[in-house]
Amino acid sequence: MARIIVVTSGKGGVGKTTTSASIAMGLAKKGHKTAVIDFDVGLRNLDLIMGCERRVVYDFVNVINGEATLNQALIKDKRCNQLFILPASQTRDKDALTQEGVGKILDELAKDFKYIICDSPAGIERGANLAMYFADDAFVVTNPEISSVRDSDRMLGILASKSRRAENNEEAIKEYLLLSRYSPERVSLGEMLSVEDIQDILSLHLLGVIPEAKSVLNASNSGTPVILDKESTAGQAYEDIVARYLGEDRPHRFINEEKKGLFGKLFRSK
Amino acid sequence: MSLLDYFKSSKSSSASIARERLQILVAHERTSRNQPSYLPKLQAELLAVVKKYVNVDENAISVNFEQDEEREVLELNIILPDETTH
Predict the structure, then answer these.
(1) Would you say domain B23-85 falls under CATH 1.10.1740.10?
(2) B-contacting residues of A 153-192, CB under 8 Å?
(3) What pLDDT, in 10s, does the model give residues B28-43?
(4) What pLDDT shows up at residue B1?
């Protein structure tokens, strides 16, 4: 049985696509056949983060409209043969995605794939609603910032009421918190909400904390999911997250300030 | 309290302000999340009817909707003014 994971947040710019790319790569690297779908119709970007923007021929909407087959549209990752990318359409037609069409494609993917990652657009419009509608699990990406935390809470409300599982009275979507752009230094200075604060407010199971790291921008610049950067703290955090999701018991990292000497302070964060 | 603590506590303010604001806001938004959409209108119309007979304040009527697994409760609360004010 395939497992459908939605990566959501409500607010934009918190790291949904970065997270989708890394989680998908992480699961695929563990040997699970994984598809990652960009639901941001009109503002395609997952292809760039995955580094396959020049190989896009057909997209999600083409498949829904029957203009291409799923196999024609899926882009096989060059670094991992278990990973496939389904790019978003660049159409400006807001109604291009339909619940029926999305459902059909997910059903077809589910026959062949172990994990299907739905990279949700920001906001609470059609693309975001459809990205979460069919989900089994939700990764709620949150920044330690009030607007992001509030939006995450709004998304939890929508997840609980407007999903297939909710409508069919099935077991609720499993929700996980992924706290990104976290800076333990600023937390200890009292400038940033802490993991505990945010968990307290959202009451969500914490899957992992991704520290603020320069490597994230470097990775997106080069079209490499940051999880492949073994040196990067953010990459290691995503590696932990994938392992925890798959049931491994790993202690949380990157929550507390690392004790750095003067030397360490001079050469800050990788 | 040492001098160091003083600096620490003054600096811890912005995160703790954020936490307090969020706790209040999220709690409020959660209670209104599951409420039926007719609730504000119901409250306004009830107020109008009550006002015909009793001179009550705008805030004298509260309509609360609560939901648990077994039942839904619509609670209507009208605070009548003191006799002396008539």
Answers:
(1) no
(2) 153-154, 157, 187, 189-192
(3) 888 777 777 788 888 8
(4) 47
